[in-house]
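Structure first, sequence second, as always.
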């Protein structure tokens, strides 16, 4: 008799793309599959012109799997699981939601128009309804959890668990080898930023910081690897390598003397930045936005860097240069960080167990 904890995981997006969200979800599911005592079944919905039909097909697969496997818990993200949750009175199963954003409130930030915007509104509305009805909500940020609790009447329990890293995703290059790969001079201090080049990631702060380094004649170069910087950096002050696949991105991080983690306060939640954990798994000093949960608190908790206010480039410059001159940390001296996806999954399962007992 199989006495493992039976879990169904379902999301409403494809796992075949190379975006950070897709990669992190694959890594998370791999960690769940490796976890002793867990039997995992998962479903995802392909995207494209027939997205509504594919989502509907995905729902029937989820319901059929519930009837066949009789799982202990079903974890869903996005609009996935909407039909199965409506039928919850017939299923003796713990319904869990993974919540990463206040989707309806942030729809204004998305570049959708017409039918695509309408479809996004429907999906996000279905997602919110599930969030409120779930037995357990796993948020990726405490600020998002607090906002939900202040806005909605919700059943069940809420918790937050930050994102994590997959140890095997680390680059195998040395700093020198990585600099050679990207044509970066050995005598130049390299500060790397990876992630989407967007307003809410604070990439405009990086341009101001590079301008500040240049004004002081510092041998410091900010290097970005997350999409076009043209609209934020028309003078091309920062170097930009794009597009990069997962391996190239890890290699670029290995070329860094330190990695940058700015954020702009334009969303309900700043999110749990995947790039922070990419920096950590590649054993690089992290410069995070000061006084920002999910950023500076994690850097201080794991002792992997420093916090600055990127909105004040002169001050940030001084703190970064002081830290790098005083702390030429060797890779072997990097602290062990309990922030892998396996570590995060243990937090998930502890909260699942607590919710199941109530």
């Amino acid at each position: 008799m199989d006495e493992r904890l039976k879990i169904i995981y379902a999301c409403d997006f494809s796992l075949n793309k190379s975006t950070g969200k897709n990669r992190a979800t694959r890594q998370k599911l791999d960690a769940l599959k490796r976890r002793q005592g867990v039997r995992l079944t998962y479903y995802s919905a392909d995207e494209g012109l027939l997205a509504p039909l594919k989502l509907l097909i995905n729902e029937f697969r989820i319901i059929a799997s519930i009837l066949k496997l009789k799982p202990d818990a079903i974890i869903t993200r996005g609009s996935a699981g909407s039909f199965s949750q409506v039928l919850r009175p017939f299923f003796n199963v713990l319904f869990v939601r993974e919540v990463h954003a206040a989707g309806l409130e942030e729809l204004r930030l998305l570049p959708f128009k017409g039918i695509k915007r309408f479809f996004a509104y429907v999906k996000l509305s279905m997602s919110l309804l599930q969030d409120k009805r779930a037995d357990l909500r796993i948020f990726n940020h405490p600020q998002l959890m607090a906002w939900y609790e202040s806005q909605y009447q919700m059943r069940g329990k809420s918790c937050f668990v930050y994102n994590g890293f997959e140890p095997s995703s680390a680059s195998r290059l040395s700093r020198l080898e990585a600099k050679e790969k990207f044509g970066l001079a050995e005598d130049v201090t390299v500060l790397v930023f990876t992630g989407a080049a967007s307003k809410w990631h604070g990439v405009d702060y990086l341009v101001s910081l590079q301008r500040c380094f240049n004004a002081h004649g510092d041998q410091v170069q900010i290097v970005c690897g997350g999409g076009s910087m043209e609209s934020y950096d028309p003078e091309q002050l920062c170097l930009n390598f794009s597009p990069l696949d997962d391996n190239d991105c890890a290699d670029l991080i290995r070329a860094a003397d330190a990695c940058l983690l700015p954020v702009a306060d334009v969303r309900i939640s700043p999110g749990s930045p995947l790039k922070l954990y990419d920096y950590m798994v590649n054993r690089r000093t992290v410069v995070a936005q000061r006084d920002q949960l999910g950023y500076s608190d994690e850097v201080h908790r794991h002792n992997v860097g420093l916090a600055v206010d990127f909105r004040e480039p002169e001050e940030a410059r001084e703190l970064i240069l002081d830290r790098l001159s005083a702390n030429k940390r060797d890779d072997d001296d990097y602290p062990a960080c309990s922030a892998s996806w396996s570590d995060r999954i243990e937090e998930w399962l502890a909260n699942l167990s607590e919710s199941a007992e109530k």
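Margin note: The chain has 13 helices and twelve strands.
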